[in-house]
């Protein structure tokens, strides 16, 4: 649409000046909030709410309350695969090509008996099957059927030492290209109470088939009372630690290091 | 202003909780839109049917290869470029995002920070709401000022008419809320507020494990998310109407009464 080439009346200019001034004034608090979001001291204040959330949620929920389980009919027709869907890692690709015959789960750190387990050995252990809802931090949910070995049973075989507090999961998938060649592979952590929850399993099957690549083959975590990013896919190594303050970004996980909550209960 | 025209309308705790609420609801709405932008679609039921959202904001390419912002509701799509789906900021005049930068907190797409702001304000909103709710019951604000008397319910049509004609009472009648005000404040504060919080809590996988009733109330986590979103916009609609009413019924008088407590009831000449 073309505009007639006639000078606008002077009061239009005044009006648009007024509108712009009022507009900027309205945006000032917004710009202020953006600045606050980038300041350490203010984010530390916001984070107190997260401590409150974690403390209160733990206080009002039972340690071993079970997440709702669903029926076959509830299974999502399309289960979204988020994050990595095919790890860009040559060692992983080689393992995948051989059907994970040579893949071994390593369990180490603060345990009496460090161990390595093959997929066949994991499958031989008592299993649990559950149809549960997967809640992504983005807001969507999908329902899937998972079969795996309870993490608690695996940990019991390795015998955690008394000082062990967290279970670290180290994964095969690099999340970004780093300039200095530092490790960008996915990692996560949960506490021991979460690890021994009856529904916390190391899943090797999804919807009655071997775990597909996009969903974390050969082994992924299911931790049904936390958000999706806690449930590490492509697990290679499990390590028990007393603290994760000195591991990678120090926040206990790949997304936690990017500012997401470690607790992830809501 | 003569003394008898001045009426102490709002007690201190009503004023304080009102203004804390103003800040909280602004922060919650804007950080909520930031969170929504991480997955700008809504569904009914337990899980997401990605191919059949109840509401979605996204982009499509038209025949000429131009990108358009598109909002879909119940299967009908509308071009909402400039506001929803595709909107600009000074650095990038056409970025694909659900709600525009001016409506979200923080303004950039930054889910982790949006969540921090949201839960921070959510706690203050809940604590502030509890203070208001409990004080309303103990201080008889609820019974005396908000719950309509049975005979008032018959005045609803008249009251709606008076609102639409922007006629506001003066004198004795201005000393208490009219029936529409009573019902509105009652529904917003004592129904929508608690339902909003419950719908938010229903999205917590941890709470769902211990309190599956949260899911039963709303018909599933995705329904709870959708209801949470709808109530947010019901709040927004309330605030818009509330502000219009404040403006047209005497903005300074209203503002003074919500800051100092004192309201000028004016001359009683409107009484027939």
What does this structure look like?
The complex is a heterodimer of chains A (about 270) and B (about 270). With about 270 residues, chain A is α+β, with helices and mostly antiparallel strands. Chain A has 7 helices and 10 strands. In chain A, a hairpin with a 5-residue loop joins strand 1 and strand 2 (about 115-120). With about 270 residues, chain B is an alpha+beta fold. In chain B, a hairpin with a 2-residue loop joins strand 6 and strand 7 (about 90-95). In chain B, helix 2 packs across helix 5. Chains A and B meet through helix 1, helix 2 and strand 4 of A and helix 2, helix 6 and helix 8 of B.
Overview features:
heterodimer, A: alpha+beta, five-stranded antiparallel beta sheet, 30% helix, globular, B: 272 residues, alpha+beta, two-stranded antiparallel ribbon, 52% helix
Question: What topology, given as strand order, has the largest sheet of chain B?
Answer: 2-3-4-5
Structural class of chain A: alpha+beta
Shape of chain A: globular
Biggest chain contact: A-B, 49 and 44 residues
Uncertain stretches of 5 or more adjacent residues of chain A: 1-9
Tell me the series of helices and strands of chain A, N- to C-terminal.
Answer: HHHEEHEEHEEHEEEEH
Could you tell me the radius of gyration of chain A in angstroms? 24 Å
Roughly what is the average pLDDT of chain B, rounded to an integer?
Answer: 92
Helix and strand layout, with pairings?
The complex is a heterodimer of chains A (266) and B (272).
Chain A: H1 10-37, H2 40-60, H3 90-97, E1 104-109, E2 115-118, H4 119-124, E3 128-135, E4 141-150, H5 151-158, E5 166-174, E6 185-191, H6 192-195, E7 201-206, E8 209-210, E9 220-222, E10 235-241, H7 254-257
Parallel strand pairs in A: 1-10
Antiparallel strand pairs in A: 1-2, 3-4, 4-7, 5-6, 5-10, 7-8, 7-9
Chain B: E1 6-8, H1 12-37, E2 41-42, E3 55-61, E4 67-73, E5 76-79, E6 85-89, E7 92-97, H2 111-138, H3 141-146, H4 156-164, H5 179-202, H6 205-210, H7 213-218, H8 221-248, H9 251-259, E8 262-264
